[in-house]
Structure formats: C-alpha cells, structure tokens
Write a structure and sequence with these properties.
Number of helices: 12
Bound molecules: adenosine-5'-diphosphate, aspartic acid, magnesium ion
Distance between the termini: 38 Å
Strand content: 25-35%
Structural class: alpha/beta
Strand order of the largest sheet: 3-6-2-1-9-11-12-10
Radius of gyration: 23 Å
Largest sheet: 8 strands, mixed
Helix content: 25-40%
Number of strands: 18
Order of helices and strands: EHEHHHEEEHEEEHEEHHEEEHEEHEHEEH
C-alpha cells in the first residue's frame, strides 16, 4: 500500500470537534487506498501552558524535566485521534515517541532525529491496521529519556516519518490554506503561493515564518520529500495548498518571494570588550554552551575608544527574547571566570527582525538598497543589518513591525503574481 503522512497542527486538533473533522480527512485518504501515518500536535495553547508551568516552577529548569512535561500535550491528542478513527470504523493505533521508538540525540528541548525503525509500524500495517497515529514533537534519547524537537517540532516529526517510510507525500494541515508571501495575519495583501522552493522556505522558516519548522524543511530538502501545506478547515484535494519543492519545478521567478519576521527578538550589546584575537570565540563559545541561539552579529569600534589604553570594541548580537536572561548569565559567568571583560551589557528587548527572501537575489543587485529606501520612506530606523546569498534581514523597533512588513511587501510587489 502507498503511504501518506498527514500532520495536524494545534488549531486543527484544538477540541473534539476539530479532531473529528481531521479524522474525516484521514478516513478519506484511507478510502483512496493509502496506509496513513497521522502526526498530531498538542491542542493549541496547551504546549504554551506547559512551558509556562515549567518556567514558573524553575526558571533555569533542567531540560530533561522540561521535556517530560512539555511533551505530554501530544499524548492526549494522539490517543483521542486514534479513538475517534476507531469510532468511525477505521482501524487505528496511537504511538508515543518512545514506543516507535523515535530515536534522537540527547539535546533536550532541541533534539534531532537519529533513526526511526520501521518494524513496529510495519507490523501493525501488516496486521491490517490502516492508520498509525503518532504523537508529534517527541523523541527518545539514548539514555532512555523523553526528548522534544523544539517548538513547532511536529512538522519535523511528519517529514521524518515521510522520509523513513518512503511516503508518497507529506501533507501539513494547518489553520491557513497554504504558504503566503508573508504571514496573512499581518498583511491582508499577502498572496498564496502555489509552489515555493525548498531553499526559500528554509530561509523564511528560519527567519520567523512559523508555518513550518525550519528543521522540517531541511529534512524534506535532504530526503526529497514532497511537502505540502494546506487547510484543515476547508475542503481539500490533490491540488490544494502550497507545494514546497525543488527550485527547477517553479516557473514563477521573482527576485524577492517572501517577507518573514520575528517579533520575539532582542539586541544585546557588550560595551567595551578588548579588541584582540580570540575575543569573539571567548564570547560566543559560552553563549553557545548556554544554549543561546545567536543570529546577527555586529562588531564595531567602541564609542569609548579614547578612554582606554588597549584597543576596545563593542560586540552586538541578536537572540530570541526569552534567552536574554540566559545570555546575560553566560556573559557574567564568563567575566567572573576571567575569559572576557566588558563595561556593560545592554539589552534592547523592543526590537523585531524583518527579512526579505528570494533565490532571485543571487543574480540581482540593488535589492538591499531598495529595501532600505522603502523603510526610510516610512521613517523606520534600521538598527542592525545582516545579509546572505538569498536574504536580507534588519532589526527595527518592534512597534514598526507591521508597517515595515507592509512597506516591503509593497515595494517588491509581492501581491502581484
Ligand atoms: P500549526 O499549529 O498548524 O502548526 P502554526 O501556528 O505553527 O500552525 O503555523 C501556521 C501559522 O503560520 C499561520 O496561522 C500564520 O499566521 C503563520 N505564518 C507565518 N508566516 C506565514 C506564511 N508566509 N504563510 C502562511 N502562514 C504563515
Ligand atoms: N506542540 C508543540 C508546539 O507547540 C509542537 C508542535 O505543535 O509542532 O511547539
Ligand atoms: Mg506549527
């Protein structure tokens, strides 16, 4: 039997009615002749609630226990989905991550897949079961402990199963009907794309477009999994939604294909660190060890140069806002250990990152200038800039986020096909 993977996100399983609605979609695919692997998220809001309970109980929590708590939301929806399908006469069985088992690294709260043995599910399909419902987001470490794959990780569970089982396609059902030129909740001019290249989706995801977890796109690209995003609330067929695919399968070629943003950014500046070989390693090593995801980095001549006997520099970096305390502690510990020195650590927690992405940028000059002019025309000040081959990102004050996204969407004419 051909295998299909269907993933339902949090809003798609938010209550019993929605689980029933998702189950109907699964049943339809079974009737079309597929053996179906269903991946479910926790009910929407549940994972946030669990994270909050952990953080309230223990601010610098033990990540093993974080995973023990935070993974639990998916257990409920997996069992309920299997029960619902059984009620509809579809033979279904649920599996938690450890039961499959989904083997991962031991990097708690950000684990990566190592292997997914097929034996258990294959045996069930061979017995005549039509649907395996898998709790998304979960894994099992070599030490035998539950791990989780990072927020939004059920997308990655879905792609990993599609790759492991040679699925015909991996369908990601969510609360929007596809991938848009920008988040349709922020711009009503956002336009749905029929197709998007893996590379572009990878950038959009890593720059904040949470419609797909970054790692899921990476895996789909590596294992050539046809990946589709579509609505769980609408009638859908083979042509619905957006297909994420290889660049050469896309006719449309715009220089910029999307605008992504991340609201929860912070900009941190270490004021007057010594400007010597090895200083960047001495700063970013401890930050990495503390699990801080540093993105943009700028090193510049310190404004306080004149006052100091040795050469000094200011080091600015961005990281997710919920990692500011962790970053501060890592830097203070490094200073106490004599690894680095700085006068002050200034955190600006009112920034957002906005990025334009497009593979067309590889062969087009002037995109950055166009972007900066469009922001200037709206009086939006740029605080930090970072570029790569197919993206340009800026940090701006968070209050300008919507305005800036709109201005960039307009200037690159993303509303037009
Ligand atoms: P799920 O719970 O199904 O995993 P998510 O909330 O993680 O859903 O992802 C879907 C959301 O992603 C949408 O509701 C939308 O607001 C947001 N989003 C951000 N950028 C985009 C984009 N470019 N296209 C579509 N949706 C986007
Ligand atoms: N429930 C997890 C989260 O909210 C995983 C997921 O939904 O993909 O991050
Ligand atoms: Mg998601």
């Amino acid at each position: 039997m051909p295998i299909l993977v269907m993933k339902f996100g949090g809003t798609s399983v938010a209550d019993l009615d929605r689980i029933a609605n998702a189950a109907v979609k699964v049943q339809r695919e079974v009737e079309r002749g597929y053996d179906v692997i269903v991946i479910v998220s926790a009910m929407s809001g549940r994972t946030n609630e669990l994270v909050n309970w952990v953080e309230t109980t223990s601010p610098f929590y033990d990540a093993r226990e974080y995973d023990a708590v935070v993974s639990s939301g998916e257990n409920v929806t997996a069992g309920l989905m299997a029960l619902r399908l059984q009620e509809m006469g579809v033979s279904a069985r649920s599996w938690q991550g450890w039961q499959v088992p989904i083997n991962t690294t031991s990097a708690h709260s950000a684990a990566r897949f190592e292997s997914i043995p097929r034996d258990n599910l294959d045996a069930k399909f061979a017995e005549g079961f039509k649907v395996a419902v898998i709790a998304g987001f979960q894994g099992l470490s070599q030490e035998g402990r539950i791990t989780t794959l990072g927020r939004g990780g059920s997308d990655t569970t879905a792609v990993a199963f599609a790759a492991a089982f040679g699925a015909e396609r991996c369908d990601i059902y969510t609360d929007v009907d596809g991938i848009y030129t920008t988040d349709p909740r922020v711009s009503d001019k956002a336009r749905k794309l029929d197709r998007i290249a893996f590379e572009e989706m990878l950038e959009l995801a890593s720059l904040g477009a949470k419609v797909l977890q970054t790692r899921s796109v990476e895996l789909a690209m590596r294992y050539k999994v046809p990946l589709r995003v579509l609505s769980s609330f609408e009638e859908t067929d083979e042509t619905s939604g957006t297909l994420v695919c290889d660049e050469d399968k896309i006719m449309e070629s715009k220089v910029v294909s999307g605008v992504a943003f991340s609201r929860e950014e912070a900009k941190m500046t270490l004021v007057t660190v010594e400007d010597r070989p090895g200083i960047a390693g001495a700063i970013f090593g401890p930050l990495a060890d503390a699990g801080v995801n540093v993105d943009m980095i700028v090193q510049n001549i310190s404004e306080h140069q004149a006052k100091h006997a040795v050469k000094v520099t200011d080091m600015t970096f961005s990281c997710p806002i919920n990692q500011v305390a962790r970053a501060r502690k890592a830097m203070e510990d490094a200073r106490d250990a004599g690894l680095i020195n700085f006068d002050d650590l200034v955190a600006d927690e009112d920034v957002a990152k906005i990025s334009v992405v497009g593979i067309g940028m590889r062969s087009h000059a002037g995109v950055a200038a166009q972007m900066f002019k469009a922001l200037a025309a709206e009086n939006v000040n740029i605080k930090v800039i970072a570029t790569s081959e197919i993206k340009i990102s800026v940090l701006v004050d968070r209050k300008y986020l919507e305005l800036a996204v709109q201005a960039l969407h307009d200037v690159f004419e993303l509303d037009k096909a």
